[in-house]
Amino acid sequence: MALRNVISTLNHDGSEVMGPGILMYHYPNNDIMNGSLLTVESNHFCVLKSRGAVLDVYETGQYPVSTPQRPLIGSIQQSFYGGQSPWQYEALFVSRAKSVAKSQGLALSRELAELVYDVDYYVHIDTKEDAVKLVTHMPYQGHLLTTDALNAYAGPVVEQSINQLVQVTPLEQVNERIHDITELVRGHLQDFLSIYGIMLNDVKVLIRPRDERMRELISLRAFGLSEHEAVRYYCAMKMAEHGLLSAPNMAVGEPFNIGITAIQATPLAGGLPGLADGGPGAHAAQHAATPATAHPAPAQPAAQHPGAQQPAAQHPGEQQPAAQHPGEQQPAAQQPAAQYPGGA
Asked: Which residues are CB-contacts of 64 (< 8 A; sequence separation ≥ 6)?
C-alpha cells in the first residue's frame, strides 16, 4: 500500500513557513500526485493548479488530491517517470491573516521643501475568489510573495496620492491636513489593491520635514513664536549646546557686551529694570563695570611728587594757605616781590 504524501505549509521540524509579511507560499516540491493529502490551516486558502489552470480552491481542512483523469498511481507512477508526476500540480497557499506593508518616500511642499512620509497599511485576503485574483494577477518570484513585493506595486500609488495634496499645501499646514491626506491615500490604495483581491483594512500616514533644523523651527513656531523669534531661539539653543555664555542674549535679542565702561553704563541703565530708577541694581552694575571709577581717590598734593620744590612745605609751622589747596591759583599780591628778579 502506497503512503500518501502530505502537502502543507509546515517544515520538517514543524515550523510554519508562512510567517508575518508573507502573503502567498508556493509549495516547492514536485511530489503532488493523485491521492496526496492537502492540509490547509485555519488562516490559509489553498489554490490548486494543474498545468497553469486553477482546479480548485480549498479552505480549512484536509483534502485528497484527485486528478481529472485516471493516472498511474502509487510507486509505479513515481518509478516510471523518474520521480516526476505526469500530472504537474501546483499548490499555492494564500494567507488570510492581516498583514502590514510599509511605504516610504519623499514629497515636496508648496515651497518645494522636502518632506519624508511613512505609510503603514494593513491588508488581508477575505474570500476564495480574492485568493484566485491574487494568484492570477499578482506576479511573484521564487516561492514567496511578501509584503515588500506588494509594496513595489502599491508604492507609486501612495506617492502620487500624498503629493497630490502636499504640493499645494504650505509646509506649516501639512500636518493640519493629515486626515485629508490619509483618506485620499486610503481611497486610491483600495481601488488599486482590489484588482489583486486584496482587502485594505487601515492606513496610517506620518509626514515630517526631511531637514532636522526645519523640524525644530516648526516646533518652535507651534509655541506661538514668530518666524524671527523662532530662528532666534533656535540659534540660542544651539549656542547653549556648545556652552556659549551669550546664548540668553540671543534668545532675548539683546547684545552681549564685555567690559562696560562708565560712559556705556549710562545709556544701558535706561533699558534694564532696576538701573533706570537708580535702584540697587544701578549701583551694583556701575561698581561691577567700572571698579576704578566707582570710588575716585582723593587728589594727591603736589608735595607728594618727588622732584617738585615746595618751599612752604619745607618749613613746618609756617602757614601756606595756597599750598593747602592743590590746583588753586594764588593771588599775585601774596607772592613776595623778592621772587621777581629785577624788581624795584
From this structure: 4, 35, 36, 37, 38
User: In which residue ranges of the chain is CATH 3.30.479.30 found?
Assistant: 99-210
Residue 217 has pLDDT above 90, yes or no: no
- Closest to 237 (Cα-Cα) out of 250, 227, 225, 224: 250
**Spatial separation of the C-alpha atoms in residues 131 and 196, rounded to whole Å:** 8
Phi/psi of residue 179, nearest 5 degrees: -65, -45
Q: How far apart are the C-alpha atoms of 249 and 319, rounded to whole Å?
A: 61
pLDDT tens readout for residues 111-127: 888 899 999 999 999 99
Question: Could you tell me the CA-to-CA distances from 22 to 10, 72, 150, 276, 315 in Å, in that order?
Answer: 14, 35, 10, 75, 117
* Structural element, H or E, at residue 26: strand 22-26
Strand partners, 121: 101, 203
Give the CATH class of 99-210: alpha beta
Beta bridge partners of 123: 99, 200
Instruction: Please say whether the beta carbons of 260 and 289 come within 8 A.
Output: yes
